[in-house]
Amino acid sequence: MCFVHHEGKKESYSLHGANMMKWENLKDPSRHIDNVMKVRSSQQVLENRLRLQTSIEAIKWLAKQACAFLGHDESNASSNRGNFLEMIKFLAIMNEDIAKVCLNNASGNSKYISPDIQKEILKILANEVRKKIREEIGSSKFYILVDEALDESNQEQMTVILRFVDCNGIIRERFFEVVGVDDTTALTLKKKLNVVLTQYGLHIANMRGQGYDGASNMRGSWNGLQALFLNDCPYAYYVHCFAYRLQLALVAASKDG
Predict the structure, then answer these.
(1) Torsion sign (Cα): 174, 178, 184, 188
(2) What is the value of pTM for the model shown?
(3) Which domains are assigned to the chain?
């Protein structure tokens, strides 16, 4: 604050200047508090969209290249924070706008880079891919390939692959989904498969084949998964998976060698 002495009295010109500025702001509608807050809010929305779009593009690229997302050390002091965060840093180097709003320039709850956010975006993208596959199938008949196994956390999982002939008469084979299951009994697997197929409008009546490994819960003639589906659709013929047969042959050959 600037003061000047005049006849022993102090006068504050800064206070007068501040009041005049407030008066000018009051006369200018664009400077009213509601409009100022609206502009700031709009800017925040644009910045958040850029952060989210940057994360989406990084996730799409890593997923397409089948790259791991997380690093062993993702702390700020790490020289290599993992593929996802390093990709964000790279995009920030190449684009000034991204550099201004991403990583350290964003508040902790709006960076859109946490593992939970990554998983949520991946789920959305995966669902869009499944919708596209469903469009490819259309009203065609289809064949299911299923395998079940334990993952590293000892969680039972079932992989679902769809095989069909598209509208151009070309045979397509699409990886469709990985589904967690409580156990690998034939009835549990069938219930889960019914949920997956029904969710995307794939009717059991249009199934024309099943391919599994040779385990009893899969190929059993009476209570196996193939038998349960045959009860619903007599045209869903079972074929022992040739890829699995090849795997068994190669394992046996490697042991004998």
Answers:
(1) negative
(2) 0.73
(3) 13-17+28-113 (no CATH), 133-256 (3.30.420.40)
